[in-house]
Structures are given as structure tokens and as C-alpha cells.
Amino acid sequence: MGSALLELVVLSLPSVIYARRLERAGISRDRARKMIGLQPGKPQPYLIALAMIVPVSAVAVLLLNIVPSSVLHGHTKNIVGAPRTVSDYVAIVLLALAEEMLFRGLIAGVLFRRFGFRKGNLLQALVFLAPHLLLLLVRVSLWPLLPLQLIAGLFLGWLRQRSESIGPCWLLHAATNTIPALLFGL
What we know:
Layout: H1 2-24, H2 29-35, H3 44-66, H4 69-73, H5 77-80, H6 86-115, H7 117-132, H8 135-138, H9 145-163, H10 167-184
Helix pairs in contact: 1-2, 1-6, 3-9, 3-10, 6-7, 6-9, 6-10, 7-9, 9-10
């Protein structure tokens, strides 16, 4: 749990620094928060996020079924990080928030404004995929998770654009990380 809090701080810090920089440049605090997705946003994307939890989790479970069970339940379990307590599951939710603060809050916001939605969304999804490529260092047989990461990045970027908030992204991201962990005991 401590490492999840540290990651939340570290991954949120660039967004906070960027928002402060915008404020010093004369942009209002509300506008700066909007630019990094720190506002409640529109309600409909929350409903979309809720509706997508089951299908996205189902795809994640299907892809996890492709991964050899020795990888999911073998000696790499400690490397991948198996939640065992309530605080471990809270950590999953906090890590999703940390990732959304960085990838959809800061990176997507900047790229959408600079390159437009289509190009910006593709770029932020590729940036989101990059650290997930480290899964291949754990085991190459984890490769089936990578297409899901790219698709998730694209969809979460779309949600961010539609809602003007990281809220729905966080909801969907946290739920779809938690459900497979519950089902697979990961």
C-alpha cells in the first residue's frame, strides 16, 4: 500500500506542477484543473464507463486465459504482484488513479490540445503502452496483455476527451484492474 501511495504522488506530481505553471502564466485555477482533467466532468461518460466494466473485464479475463497458468500462479506471481488483502486491492485502485493522472490527465490533455484528438489519442495510447512493455521482461508469454493495454489506452483517451475529466477513466481502469485480480487471485 505504501508503494501505491508513493506511485500516486510520483505520477501525479507532473500534473500538479503543470497546473501550477499554468496558473503562474495567468490561467485560472479552474481552467488549469480542467486542462489536466481534475474536474467532475460530464455525467454520461461515467455511465459509459460503468457499462464498459463487464465487457472490458471479460476481454481481460479471456486474454489472461491465454497466458500460461504457470506464469499467473507460478514463481513470477511475486514479481507481477498478487493482491492478498483489502489494502492490496485499495492499492490497485490508487495505482489506476496514478496512471490516469499522468496518462489521461497530463499527457492526453497536452497531446489533444497540441495535435488534435485523433493523433493525440493515438500518441497518448502508445505512451501508455510503453511502460506495459516491461511485462515482457517478466515473461514473454504475457504478450497477450499488450494489445489490451493499447486498446484500453485508446478507449480511456476517448473517455477523457468526451468527459473532460479523468474520473470516468479512473472508474473503468480501477474496476478492470480489480475484477481480473479477484477472479484469478492475481
